[in-house]
Design goal:
6-stranded mixed sheet, about 375 residues, alpha/beta, 11 helices
Length: about 375
């Protein structure tokens, strides 16, 4: 097998999933993660369609289903908290309740993937790639903390603001498509005593939501607002929280309590709803996967599913090509482009409030990619 030493940047969903399949095919992956440990927090995410087949092939389907949020429904309220509507047919975060899809917390899925790989995969936490230099035989990698190392291939699985993509493909501004919305997510006490339930309050420009998590032992707050692109340091949490507080001032309902809790939340997350559009997902010995390659945004409801499917296909195509990265990367893109396009379209049509593609069309595109390796 050629190119057995593969460095993966990012230990959320795509990175550990890719590490699992690479190891299964006889490669030797190393995962480097900027955070000092697995990142906690994040929103409820969905594992759907072809991604369910992937986690089943990993032997994790029962555990994924066991971590389900088991949401019963949702309601909308006015600024005084008076209920305007409720439904037990669907939720804002998970879609139809009566479906085979599984909704679980992002960090629960990340933990399952990590636990499935940590005994056979090298993980390097609290470090990040600072430079990459390719030649005909490999990639020399420099790190912020660790000693330089050499790998056969490097894969960026490091999200919307990918460091690997910036180092190899260029500045993010060349590839990002802003969808006009910002979202903050963080853990809070379940002070409304929600029982597997979600509650939201909307205004013309903002949204305040809260839903129970982990069998009602805690809750997650969702604060969103419409805006053109904003300038801020992605690591300046204090400035991000200031932006959120300013944009949601005076919204009503439980917004003041959530804004107060935001300041001490251990897992605050804030970012734009954006997509990544690249002509190619690889350059030489470096490739991208998941949001780093083709983020469809949380508005598609498919980000984690795309990451799981893409990880499976990328590892499988490299194996089918006997590690020949040129053939493997080409096969990976050819198999997935249609599936990714369908999922990005889901988000774009949601922004325009137009009818999205039928789920069957998305899954037909996935079926093309999800062959047995």
């Amino acid at each position: 097998m050629k190119h057995t030493k593969i460095l993966i940047s990012g230990a959320s969903i795509a990175g550990p999933a890719l590490a699992y399949w690479l190891r299964r095919h006889g490669f030797h992956p190393t995962v480097v993660e900027r955070a000092p440990a697995l990142r906690g927090g994040g929103q409820a995410i969905d594992v759907r369609g072809a991604a369910l087949d992937v986690v089943d092939r990993m032997g994790l389907l029962a555990q994924v289903r066991g971590a389900s949020t088991r949401m019963r429904g949702m309601s909308f309220v006015d600024a005084e908290g008076r209920e305007l509507m409720r439904t037990t047919e669907a939720t804002l975060t998970g879609g139809k309740i009566d479906s085979p899809d599984v909704e679980l917390m992002r960090d629960d899925l990340a933990r399952l993937l990590y636990d499935a790989t940590r005994r056979e995969v090298e993980y390097v936490f609290d470090d990040t790639i600072t430079a990459l230099a390719q030649d005909d035989d490999g990639v020399d990698v420099r790190f912020a903390r660790g000693e330089p190392r050499r790998f056969d291939l490097v894969i960026g699985a490091d999200g919307l603001h990918s460091t690997v993509r910036r180092l190899v493909f260029g500045e993010e501004s060349r590839f990002i498509r802003h969808l006009g919305t910002y979202l903050a997510i963080f853990s809070v006490e379940n002070f409304l005593e929600l029982d597997h339930w979600q509650v939201f309050h909307n205004t013309d420009e903002a949204m305040v939501g809260i839903y129970s998590a982990r069998d009602n032992r805690e809750a997650r707050a969702m604060l969103g607002f419409s805006s053109p692109p904003l300038e801020f340091d992605p690591r300046d949490v204090a400035r991000q929280q200031q932006i959120v507080a300013e944009r949601l001032a005076g919204v009503g309902w439980v917004a003041p309590r959530l804004l107060a809790a935001m300041a001490t939340a251990p897992d605050f997350y804030f970012d734009s709803m954006s997509q990544i559009d690249l002509e190619r997902w690889s350059q030489g010995r470096v490739a991208l996967v998941g949001d780093a390659a083709c983020c469809s945004s949380p508005m598609s409801g498919q980000g984690s599913s795309v990451a799981l499917v893409a990880a499976y296909v990328l590892a499988g195509e490299l194996a089918a090509a006997d590690g020949d990265h040129r053939r493997g990367f080409a096969g990976y893109e050819a198999a997935l482009r249609g599936y990714v396009a369908q999922n990005q379209q889901l988000a774009l049509l949601a922004v325009e409030q137009r009818q999205p593609p039928a789920p069957e069309a998305v899954e037909r595109a996935a079926a093309v990619a999800l062959r047995a390796y």
